[in-house]
């Protein structure tokens, strides 16, 4: 539905292009204006520092009444992100508000990288590691960042 | 309806019925309140904070338990692979039941185009083993063919997936298994099954995403190049499958991994496949693969630089070829030249398209996003993995109306009638006939669709060149579908929920294409009743008679400007509503009535008051 693309999406896209968020890029797909190719830089002082994480973001038919669908495409060792890249984040589920936007969602995800929450895990084994041996978990997260999120 | 992928596009409400978890449990995560308050439009998170600390009965945990296998160790030995898509109700498939063929078996030495064996019953479901039956040894090739054989019977997202698919999914969890599955798809999917390439998409969608290493291994084991392309004439099915596999993976991995898949050899191979001497099916899927690679801009530049357009301008001439396979090649070549790989000095087809005498088109503003509509507006095709839909530009409320469709591909399409209320849920696999406001004919699976339920009909399966007739009799409230002039009994169900406002409409599974005739040309099988033609009653301004290429359309959208004081949610209407008791404004009534709590402060809304 190209011409019937909601103005809301056009507006957000324009703003993302003209006032990009530092450390985050979200580029609409050439074929599908509801699909965004996203790069999130790992936040400094986190195990993900130095990595660039690819995500995909899709705005469903009923956006903004329903949240965007977001998924990590780059492998990441994080207790709230599972191996399919799915993200455990309340604002993407029951705490969604139509006043939130693509940019705020991506900022929240970047914040999630700074503050993993093993008490609310999506990846059980990772969360377990995070709780039992945090420093080891952080080392693993750093190693994965080097392995999957940095250009060789 | 088509079963898009059990894994679903992403986790979300639409996937919920697919997962066997109880998704109704609420879940909280304390992280939503972090660091986002800097943006003025972020809702006040205070309420959230209290909720967040209440508990961590995260539904995700249930899902995670179904996926206890470590992301990172996915390729190390794992005695009990667990299906990652969350099929917790199915016992894990024991590795020993599947004889994993080594990747070598799929190497270029083994080039026979194996024929599809006669249809046989699906293999014993794993349950049989629980009661002590001896497991039958099943090869990956057999599992792939089993999937192909049962794919027509999959009509419901909530249906249990066939055992063959579950088993393949498990095998593909490990790198060696994934490679074997891919090689098997290449080796055994036969040429003559109209759903062959679609099954490649379906199965690869089910499998985990390959790593960069797997991709490199696949590339090196196929060792594609110009020379290999020449073998396509002897083994067209194999080479069509290779192209389809490459395209599918390129699409799934859009980004850096798609760049690493487009090796010099793979690019050379795909371009060599565009030689008009190659088998048209190989050419077709090579064009589509290049199109899918181009979803990554770096690849797009590489492909353009390699001179793809010079091949496409030759193939574009096949766009009206009487041979349907060549016609598909022409369609895709032209679409690429108009939308993707622009060539200096070439006129975009829409600029020179002659639409004189044509008063009804497929509506390019009333279609799901991936459908390809020809510049003449009467032919459509999908190469996406979603279920793409479109309505025509003309709407009828009374009388008797008839249109025809020429079948170009014999795979799954659902064609018929729909009102504006019918939704195009392309990513969920729902289209025309999948709600109560539409009714559709599916000649591949031989079904009539209404309200997402299907019933078999008496026609034989459609084939290329067949002509479908669609008669809508609003006086007697009935729809009559016909195949080459043979009528089915009237359908009446849709009139329970829709009385008027009907459009011709259709949905397309991957790689399907057809041509519409709304009466600008003579009908092949006019029904023996007094009917009207859309084309005689409709009118289109010259402005509306244009099917713009996507890049042109997006450019127009980017220039759109916004009024002052418009609703902060939809940006369509004036902000004219105040929410009480919180007092927040900046939104319109249309949006306000869709929400129960204030989008800014989350206070429950008791009253919506119009303010000017």
UniProtKB/TrEMBL annotation, chain A:
Residues at the catalytic site: 88
Domain UBC core per the UniProt entry, residue ranges: 4-150
PROSITE patterns in the cross-refs: UBC_1, UBC_2
GO biological process entries: DNA damage tolerance; protein K63-linked ubiquitination
GO annotations of cellular component type: nucleus
One Gene Ontology MF term: ATP binding
Transmembrane segments: none
Alphabetical UniProt keywords: ATP-binding, Nucleotide-binding, Transferase, Ubl conjugation pathway
Highest taxon above the source species: Eukaryota
Family: Belongs to the ubiquitin-conjugating enzyme family.
PANTHER family with a match to the protein in the record: UBIQUITIN-CONJUGATING ENZYME E2
Record's protein name: Ubiquitin-conjugating enzyme E2 N
Natural source organism: Branchiostoma floridae (Florida lancelet)
Protein's gene: LOC118415399
Automatic annotation (TrEMBL), chain B:
Family annotation (SMART domains): SPRY
Domain of life, source organism: Eukaryota
Keywords, in A-Z order: Metal-binding, Zinc, Zinc-finger
RING-type domain sequence ranges: 567-602
Protein name: RING finger and SPRY domain-containing protein 1-like
GO biological process: proteolysis involved in protein catabolic process
Region (Disordered): 70-127
Keyword Repressor in record: no
Species of provenance: Branchiostoma floridae
């Amino acid at each position: 539905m190209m011409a019937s693309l909601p103005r809301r999406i056009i507006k957000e896209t324009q703003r993302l292009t003209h006032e990009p968020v530092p450390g985050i890029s979200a580029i609409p797909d050439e074929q599908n204006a509801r699909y965004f190719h996203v790069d999130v830089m790992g936040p400094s002082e986190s195990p993900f520092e130095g990595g660039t994480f690819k995500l995909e973001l899709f705005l469903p038919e009923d956006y903004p009444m329903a949240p965007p669908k977001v998924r990590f495409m780059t492998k990441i060792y994080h207790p709230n992100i599972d191996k399919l890249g799915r993200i455990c984040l309340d604002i993407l589920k029951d705490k969604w508000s139509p006043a939130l936007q693509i940019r705020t969602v991506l900022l929240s995800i970047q914040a999630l990288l700074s503050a993993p929450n093993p008490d609310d895990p999506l990846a059980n084994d990772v969360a377990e590691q995070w709780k039992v041996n945090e420093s080891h978990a952080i080392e693993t997260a750093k190693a994965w960042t080097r392995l999957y999120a940095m250009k060789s | 309806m088509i079963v898009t992928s059990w894994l679903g596009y992403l986790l979300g409400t639409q996937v919920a019925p697919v997962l066997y978890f109880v998704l109704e449990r609420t879940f909280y995560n304390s992280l939503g309140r972090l660091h986002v308050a800097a943006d003025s439009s972020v809702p006040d998170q205070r309420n959230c904070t209290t909720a967040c600390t209440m508990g961590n009965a995260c539904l995700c945990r249930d899902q995670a338990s179904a996926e206890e296998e470590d992301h990172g160790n996915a390729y190390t030995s794992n005695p009990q692979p667990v299906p990652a898509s969350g099929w917790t109700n199915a016992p894990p498939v024991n590795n020993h039941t599947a004889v994993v063929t080594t990747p070598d078996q799929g190497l270029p030495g083994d080039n026979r185009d194996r024929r599809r064996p006669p249809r046989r019953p699906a293999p014993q479901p794993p349950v049989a083993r629980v009661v002590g039956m001896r497991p039958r040894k099943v090869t990956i090739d057999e599992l792939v063919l089993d999937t192909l054989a049962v794919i027509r019977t999959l009509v419901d997202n909530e249906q249990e997936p066939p055992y063959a698919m579950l088993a393949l999914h498990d095998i593909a969890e490990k790198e060696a298994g994934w490679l074997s599955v891919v090689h098997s798809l290449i080796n055994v999917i036969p040429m003559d099954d109209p759903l062959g390439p679609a099954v490649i998409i379906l199965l690869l969608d089910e499998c985990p995403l390959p790593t960069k290493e797997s991709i490199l291994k696949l590339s090196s084991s196929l060792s594609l190049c110009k020379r290999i392309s020449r073998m396509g004439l002897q083994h067209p099915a194999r080479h069509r499958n290779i192209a389809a596999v490459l395209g599918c993976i390129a699409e799934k991995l859009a980004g850096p991994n798609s760049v690493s898949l487009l090796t010099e050899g793979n690019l050379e191979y795909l371009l060599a496949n565009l030689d008009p001497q190659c088998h048209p099916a190989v050419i077709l899927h090579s064009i589509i693969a290049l199109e899918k690679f181009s979803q990554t801009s770096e690849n797009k530049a590489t492909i353009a630089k390699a001179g793809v357009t010079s091949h496409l301008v030759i193939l574009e001439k096949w766009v009206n070829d009487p041979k349907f396979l060549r016609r598909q090649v022409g369609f895709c070549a032209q679409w690429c030249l108009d939308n993707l790989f622009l060539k200096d000095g070439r006129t975009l087809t829409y600029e020179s398209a002659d639409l004189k005498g044509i008063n009804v088109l497929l509506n390019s503003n009333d279609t799901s996003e991936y459908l390809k509509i020809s510049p003449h507006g009467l032919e459509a095709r999908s190469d996406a993995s979603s279920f793409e839909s479109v309505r025509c530009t003309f709407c009828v409320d009374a009388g008797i109306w008839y249109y025809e469709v020429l079948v170009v591909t014999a795979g799954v399409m659902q064609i018929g009638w729909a009102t504006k209320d019918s939704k195009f849920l392309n990513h969920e696999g729902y289209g025309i006939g999948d709600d109560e406001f539409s009714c559709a004919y599916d000649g591949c699976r031989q079904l009539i669709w209404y309200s997402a339920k299907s019933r078999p009909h008496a026609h034989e399966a459609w084939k290329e060149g067949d002509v479908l007739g669609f008669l809508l009799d609003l006086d007697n409230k009935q729809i009559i579908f016909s195949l080459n002039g043979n009528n089915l009994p009237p359908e009446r169900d849709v009139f329970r929920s829709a009385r008027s406002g009907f459009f011709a409409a259709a949905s397309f599974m991957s790689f399907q294409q057809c041509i519409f005739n709304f009466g600008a040309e003579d009908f092949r099988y006019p029904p023996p009743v007094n009917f009207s033609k859309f084309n005689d009653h409709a009118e289109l301004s010259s402005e509306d008679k244009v099917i713009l290429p996507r890049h042109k359309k997006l450019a127009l959208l980017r220039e759109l400007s916004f009024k002052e004081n418009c609703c902060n949610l939809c940006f369509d209407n004036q902000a004219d509503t105040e929410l009480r008791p919180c007092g927040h404004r900046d939104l319109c009534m249309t949006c306000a009535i869709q929400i129960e709590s204030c989008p800014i402060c989350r206070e429950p809304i008791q009253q919506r008051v119009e303010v000017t």
